[in-house]
Amino acid sequence: MFHPKTTVQPFPVALCGHTLKYEIECICKLFIPATKFAFLYETDKLPEDAHEGAVLILSHGSDSQTQFCVDVKYGGQEKTAKEYHTDCDEVVDKAKCEYIFSRMLYRLLEEITNLHPAWGLLTGIRPVKKVQPLLAQGLNEAEICRRLEDLYWIQPEKVKLAYDTAMVQKPLLAQTPPHGISLYVSIPFCPTRCSYCSFVSHSVEQAQKLIPEYLNRLCDELIIWSKLIRELELTVDTIYFGGGTPTSLTPEQLERILSVIECYFDLSQLREYCVEAGRPDTITAEKLAVLKQFHVDRISVNPQTMQDHVLKAIGRNHTKSQTIKAFEMARKAGFHNINMDLIAGLPSDTPEGFHDTLDQIMALDPDSITVHALTLKRAANLFAEGKKQLKNPVEEMMRESIQRLPAHGYLPYYMYRQKNTIDNQENVGYAHTGKESLYNILIMDESQSIFGAGCGASTKIVEPCGRITRIHNYKFPYEYIRQFDQLMEKKQQIREIYSKYRG
Length: 503
Description:
Blueprint: E1 11-16, H1 22-31, E2 37-41, E3 53-60, E4 65-74, E5 77-86, H2 94-113, H3 128-136, H4 141-152, H5 156-174, E6 180-187, E7 189-190, E8 202-203, H6 204-207, H7 211-231, E9 235-243, H8 251-264, E10 272-278, H9 285-293, E11 298-301, H10 308-313, H11 320-332, E12 338-344, H12 351-364, E13 368-373, H13 394-407, E14 411-416, E15 427-431, H14 438-445, E16 449-453, E17 458-462, E18 468-472, H15 477-482, H16 484-489, H17 491-502
Parallel strand pairs: 1-2, 1-3, 6-9, 6-16, 7-8, 9-10, 10-11, 11-12, 12-13
Antiparallel strand pairs: 3-4, 4-5, 13-15, 14-15, 17-18
Helix pairs in contact: 1-2, 3-5, 4-5, 7-8, 8-9, 12-13
């Protein structure tokens, strides 16, 4: 496989006659990863000192013909393509213009690099949402797969993965209550920060002084949410504790938050109560007992890998033995819905190591297994080593999980994709039938409002017409604590949205 050479300067992209930057940048990232791009507007040529770059020109003729011209210089090669279309205008036909440019740029970069991204032109976060409308039209599997392959040049294996996921989701989404909401609770603390992580998480050791006041404010916000939910006559459908690592807290601290939820929220219609226990080195019998006491019915025990040398390389202070002990402890405590997260492509891991990890995890027989492809996030320590990761065997590892997990009774039930994922891969949740995470499905489907509590949490209001409004909490714990009152004023915006569309 050809791997593009690194460049010190940003890769320049000139846009002339249009401002269609987003999809064009996404296509560039497929073939030129771990690279910064500099966008130039209203110029039909690259800077004089640029040895590499792309120029995309949209121009209109007098005969209703629109010319699309793409020129790419990269890896010592230069290729050009031109197409003519009738009555194409960026303002009126933005999606069509983006598609034409993306298709042309994709083909040129594919020829230059000899790379063939598995998801083709599809750059969106939610591939399953491309399948659902076709299911609604009554198309069968063969028709849906053929249409998506033709339109986006997706490889058959990935199209089938999206189709299978949509089919698992379909009956579960049909059971969603009409006035239901999900509640997300953010615990932004971890024992240490992993090299691949960009989440707003602070180590317990560094943030110990912040935790008591943070929990005070979090409980205050939860009480405010409970009053608003009653006022708007909404139903709490699922609850999800994320972060961070919620089990970084002590048993007493966990009990305090869970007590507030039990006291102030009507949980009689709750379908799922999930806590990301996460790091095996934070899981104790006492914490599991607290979670069980408050009717938490789904947890995660996340090893990421079962290779001890890989755990050490990514900054995790636990071993595979601790993972097995934590899992067995959770089973003994009475948890019958346990998820385990894995990451394909971690530094120093190999296809053989990932194969062994799958063997060990399937031997434990968790109820669900989530497989993430390594993503080079800018805020993660690993991003600085981005160029070194370009030969990462992520694709081979993901292919193995796609083949082996369904064969062992784990069906794909939710999927999403992220920017800067190595080899343009995806994240997939697999589960035994009846053990799927409803929250994960709902957040990807964007069909239910989610109320977020805590720092870094976002609230997503989904109106019946499909319009979505996002309201973000402050990113860091100290901001959340200091500016709590201003943050709570944003709750009025939620009242206004519900009042407006109900009226």
